[in-house]
Amino acid sequence: MASPKSVLITKRLLDASVAQSKRYEIWDSQIPGFGVRVGPSGIKTFVVRYRADGGGRSAPKRFVSIGRFGALTVELARKRAKEVLAAAALGEDPAADRNAKRLELKIAALVDLYEEEGCYIQRGVRQGEPMKPLTKKYTIGRLRHHVVRLLGHKRITELTPGDIERFFRDVEEGKSRKDIKAGPRKRIVVRGGPGAARKAFRDLSAMYSFAVRRGLVDANPCEKAVVRKTDGRRKRFLSLAEVKKLGEACDALEEEGFNPKALNITRLWILTGCRRQEIVELKWNEVDFDRGLLVFADSKTGQSTRPLAGAAIGLLKNIPRTDGSDYVFPADIGEGYFQGTKKLWPKIVARSGLENVTPHTLRHTMGAIATSSGEALAMTGAILGHANMRSTMIYAHIDHDPMKEAADRVGKTLAKALGRTA
Description:
single chain, 16 helices
């Protein structure tokens, strides 16, 4: 029999329900035991109440959360409520089963489950698609090197926002760092630091969102953790003068017999704005010389076509092809692509005299120079292979050189009017 205070739960009713100083429940008049719990924060959670052990007044009362309003529709919540109530009527105890499952699972085990079933894009145009293999590798690597090492022993329901804030600071301070030999010619080096802490936090939050969707936890503790999610600084990019220094360093090293593959990869990073691996793993069948394009069947954002500058086309045409290899930059020994840039890149940067420059800095540089030269953001996004304009916005930096030149032009006009020399 429905509660005397019960009403028919609908979307309109829940949209109109407002938070109060204390948590309260709304019970459904159609399905006894089905309701919605409204918290002080305004979060509305569908719940089911029943008596265990087949029912009866002496049986213990149980509550099961079946999902949040918004993530679940009222219709789907009703369906799940009926399933829980049916199981309870048959003598099962869904709440006890869920609690036992929660108590058994630790964060280290959740990482395993996330690796097997949860590594999917959670937002954007590629929502629901599997992560790219390299993205998944780095994501799981950060979770194992930082999260499992510092939090892996905790049960997933025990983690609090305070725990996450301490975890963030510990990674910032390098408490998860390590340097171990993992095999022949292979080492695992984990350094920690502010950047690593931000990335590990994002990965941990994504994993807990997966756990919420699976019903393993009720909420994502990362949502309430107070941590610095961005570095508060503008993206590093090179000025034209710095690009010139990097080019001169490549030319000087080439005269000294430096590995030409590493130098040409660097030049193409600058001239194309492509991601690091897109050039390192570039294949000849992805280069369309006739139309002046790079055509990637599968990039970070899926299939992608990029325009090539004339200088990039000229550079590619002068690279000799290696028999038996599809790669523009084949490995010096064995099959596959050239993998020496990680070791040789620091030498190139050191020779240029620049600081805080990574291969991705060159991608930022392409975006910054394009926008500061007056190119529309849509055109910049096409060059960089962005799937949406929001990604391109972070490259909309203004190079100070053209700003200064514009100020000089305007200043000369105003100075002339004032009768002063500019």
